[in-house]
Write a structure and sequence with these properties.
This protein is an alpha/beta fold and 193 residues long. Helix content is 27%, strand content 25%. It is built from 6 helices and 11 strands.
Length: 193
């Protein structure tokens, strides 16, 4: 039986931050459960494409539709081996859903591997799991992270760095996918050179 990873998404999740982990983890043999509160398997979430084009912040454009393959309300968290939280716009409202925060806390309480990218840290902050942790995230989320008791792992100029703190693997944005995915799958027991 392959290991299962919960990919927690919502409308306007960052396109690369959902699609790349979904495909990379599946390619490595993981069963990836893409779930969104209030939606069911077979439905989709809209994605947003964030890009770095020389402005003071990223730009945002409508992305693809991302297919869900799991019902959020039927999740069996004990059967999941890890959690992957992408960024984009979704974390800012998913954190307001009272059903989401206990899901996030489950993976920290059970010390299962967790990967978080970009604005995904907003879910961790709302769930109260940042205190005492060093976490890489998009600079605009630094204030929320620090208010939640976490320490910001300063970003490399290209947003491609990774930070590992216990069971938590984090990156500032989608350019960090190679490093974040490599460390996350190591936490899940797969060695990548």
């Amino acid at each position: 039986m392959s290991k299962r990873v919960l990919l927690l998404v919502g409308d306007f999740v960052e396109s690369y931050e959902a699609m790349v982990p979904m495909q990379a983890l599946a390619m490595l043999g993981f069963e990836v459960l893409a779930a969104c509160p209030g939606k069911h398997a077979g439905q989709t979430v809209a994605t947003a494409v964030h890009d770095f084009e020389g402005f003071q912040t990223y730009t945002e454009k409508r992305g693809h539709n991302f297919a869900l393959n799991c019902d959020f309300d039927k999740l069996n968290l004990s059967s999941c081996d890890g959690l992957y939280v992408p960024g984009g716009r979704a974390p800012e409202y998913l954190r307001l859903n009272p059903l989401v925060l206990p899901v996030v806390r489950h993976f920290f309480d059970t010390k299962k591997p967790v990967a978080v990218v970009c604005h995904g840290v907003q879910l961790l902050a709302a769930a109260g799991v940042c205190r005492g942790r060093k976490i890489a995230c998009y600079p605009a989320c630094k204030v929320e992270l620090e208010l939640a008791g976490g320490t910001w792992a300063e970003n490399s100029p290209g947003y491609d760095n990774v930070c590992v703190d216990g069971n938590l693997v984090s990156g500032p944005a989608w350019p960090a996918h190679p490093a974040v995915l490599r460390e996350f799958v190591r936490k899940l027991g797969v060695q990548i050179p």
